[in-house]
Amino acid sequence: MSDEATEEREQAEREDESADGPAVPQEGEAGPHSGAGHGKPDKSAKQTEEEPAPKRAEVSNYEIVEHWFNAAADRLNLPDDVAAVLRSSYREVQVQVPVRLSDGKVHVFSGYRVQHNGARGPYKGGIRFHPEVDLDEVRALAELMTWKTAIVNIPYGGAKGGVNVDPSKLESGEVQNVARSFMDKIEKVLGPQRDIPAPDVGTNAQVMAWLMDEYGKLHGHTPACVTGKPIALEGSFGREAATGRGVVQVFCEAAPEIDLDPSEATFVIQGFGNVGTWAARLMQDLGAKLVGVADASGAIASEGGIDADKLAEHVRAGGSVADFDGRTDEIDPNELVALECDVFIPAALGGMIHEDNAAKMRCRMMVEGANSPTTPKADAILTENGVFIVPDVLANAGGVVVSYFEWVQNLQHMRWTEDEVNERLGEIMRRAFHEVADRGRENSTPMRPAAYELGIERVVEAASTRGYI
Ligand code: NAD
User: Fold this and answer.
1) Per-run averaged pLDDT (10 residues), the chain, 469 residues
2) CB 3.0 to 4.6 Å from 278: which of 241, 284, 389, 419, for a disulfide?
3) Closest residue (by CA) to atom 16 of ligand 1?
4) Residue-level pLDDT at 56
């Protein structure tokens, strides 16, 4: 970034910070639970009820992203000082989110917004409501967004946010209060030209509507301040399905790599929320057969196939995967990965494919709908076993691509048709897939290292052209 642009931005931030209202803790400044600063693990107390953790990774999401960044930085011979800038976040905000719940007590949650790198455009990334959210995880996911937006070549930087709350245990009005309180605390670092949130785990179009409304109370009607909004509030056609659709679009490009006909594929989905539901339905539209699926409630399998549309309807109506009544067998969720299939699609949380379960996997391809679902050790095992992996930074970028379309439509106060959105999404996903695949072929590397290299190179070029590094 040029000195002038940096100064202008910092001046704007100083003005924002001097405005009325509580100050937002800034980079290097302690928040209410913070050890503050970069790179330190977050040990802040969680205020939500603790549950026994499912069997998860040997490393954190942050360590997973750092592993791939460091490996790519080495291969690119990135100077240490440049790597140090790209490894750390531009700004990390941690705030207190106090909300009175139906038990009559005020509960204090921790909210985070991390802006990792803004060299290529405004910061962009989802907001997660989940009891395990902490600064380390948000930091990792923000960095992932920087590489992702660069890999699909849309004009954004990377950010992520979250609150360590379990929305499934709250009433709708309470979730609304969490969303509004969080927005009140972080609005000073957001805005259509600065940082634009979107949905992620535990948040949806309704939460985005509350966030937009709260931002609008302070700044006037500003639909471009968040994406993933409902259609009735200037959301984009196609946004809800976009991440799952992008997963399926890249799958279609990847299938020939393993001589697979998409219409004859069998697949398994881990996580049946926004991404998993849409990926399953669209895979089924191709003719592929869903043979196993899990959500947090449990897992089911059927060699004869599970009707993805009916299961999605059942879940939308408030049911869970485990209580789906459709000629399926309930299986141990830990055994889902061992189901024989052509394609395994992780669409739940990070670190679910780890060194203890990777060797059990019997898929030929993995298309990562979730963020950081695979640890580096698991990745090595799968690659060794010949599994073709389409990595998260490419495979699940469909959501941010259509978020970009929503932002563009909002800024122009116009609307594209769903067909236009889906077609443009397909163009971007297909182009990105082949750019990454070609690079992998040139350097004899799998897709993931190739994707990181491409993303990092683009960010370095933007940052150095601005004069930021
Ligand atoms: P969501 O909250 O809609 O769904 C998450 C699903 O995972 C739920 O079905 C939940 O029950 C399931 N789950 C939780 N724990 C599980 C476990 N132990 N085993 C099996 N399933 C479990 O979230 P989402 O928006 O679909 O996001 C899923 C993943 O995709 C996340 O990693 C997210 O970061 C990533 N992602 C989402 C988007 C998006 O647009 N929503 C975009 C890019 C990446």
Assistant:
1) 44 38 32 35 40 64 96 98 97 98 96 98 98 97 98 98 98 98 98 98 97 98 98 97 98 98 98 97 98 97 97 97 90 98 97 97 98 97 98 98 98 97 98 98 97 98 96
2) 241
3) 296
4) 64
The set of protein residues with a Cβ atom below 6 angstroms from ligand 1 is: 54, 199-202, 243, 270-276, 294-296, 333, 347-349, 369-371, 396, 399
Nearest CA to ligand 1 atom 23: 201
Spatial separation of the C-alpha atoms in residues 52 and 68, rounded to whole Å: 29
Cα gap 198→407, rounded to integer Å: 11
Paired tokens of 146: 């920087």
For residue 55, what pLDDT is reported?
59
pLDDT at 71: 98
Work out which ligand 1 atom sits closest to the CA atom of 54.
Answer: 18
- pLDDT value of position 20: 33
Question: Please, which residues have CB within 8 angstroms of residue 282's CB and are 6 or more apart in sequence?
Answer: 241, 244, 245, 247, 248
Candidates 23, 1, 24, 26; CA nearest to 91 is: 26
Best residue among 156, 226, 247, 274 to mutate for probing ligand 1, ranked by most atoms within 8 Å of CB: 274
Q: For position 229, what pLDDT does the model report?
A: 98
Identity of the residue numbered 104? G
Place of tokens 């993995």: 366
Residue 140's H or E segment, with its range, is helix 135-151
Q: Is 160 a catalytic residue?
A: yes
CA of 22 to the centre of ligand 1 (A): 33
- For a mutational test of ligand 1's pocket, the pick from 151, 275, 402, 405, i.e. the residue with the most ligand atoms closer than 8 A to its C-beta, is 275
Q: Answer whether 49's CB lies under 8 Å from 169's CB.
A: yes
Instruction: Classify residue 22 by its DSSP letter.
Output: P
Cβ atoms of 456 and 393 within 8 Å: the answer is no
Residue of 43, 124, 148, 160 marked active site: 160
